[in-house]
Amino acid sequence: MQTIQLAITQPEYRATLEQLLRVNGGWSFQTVETPDLSISGVVVVDDAVLDRMPHPLAHPERVVLITHRDPSKLARAWDCGIRSVVYYSDQANTTVLAILAATLRIPRPRLAAGTPGGEGPSRGGGHAFWPHAAGPFAILRPRRDCACRFVHKQRESVL
Q: Domain map of the chain by residue range?
C-alpha cells in the first residue's frame, strides 16, 4: 500500500480528512509540513503548500490540490500539470475520491505473467476490453482471454 502524504495548513479540514481516510479503508497516510516527493504515493496539498514546493513538479498526476475558487490559483494548478483539484467548499468525501483517482493514476510495477495480479492477457488484472467499431462510436467488448468473464457475460446480456 502506498503512503498518502497530507500537507494541509487548515487543521479542521486536515482532521476531517484524516478521520475519513482512517475509517474508509484504512489508508496508510502521514501528516507532513512539506511533502517529500521522493516517497511514492499520493500527495495532498493546499495552495499554501503548493507555493512552497519546487516547480516544475516531477509527477503532478499524483498531486491532489485543495484550494479556494480563485482563478489565479486554478491557473497555477493548471500550469503545474495538476489533474485533481478539490475546493474547500466541497465535502471531504470528494477529496477522498480525488485521492483514490490519483492513486489509480500512479504507475504500478509490473509483475510476471501467471502470478496473481501479474501482467497477462488482461493487462494487470483489470477488465480487458477490445474496442469494436460501430459507426462513429467504439463499443467495448470483453476479450476472450479476460479472467472476469462472468461480469462481462452479465454486461453483454444487458446490451
A: 4-105, 114-159
Helix (H, G, I), strand (E, B) or coil at 71: helix
Q: What is the pTM of this model?
A: 0.66
CATH class of 4-105: alpha beta
- The answer to whether the CB of 71 falls within 8 A of the CB of 37 is no
**Model confidence pLDDT, tens digit, residues 41-51:** 899 999 899 98
* Residue with cell string 474508509: 24
**What does 5-53 look like in DSSP terms, one character per residue?**
EEE-S-HHHHHHHHHHHHHTT---EEE-SS--TTS-S-EEEEHHHHHHS
Q: Tell me the pLDDT tens digit for each residue of 60-79.
A: 888 999 999 989 888 888 88
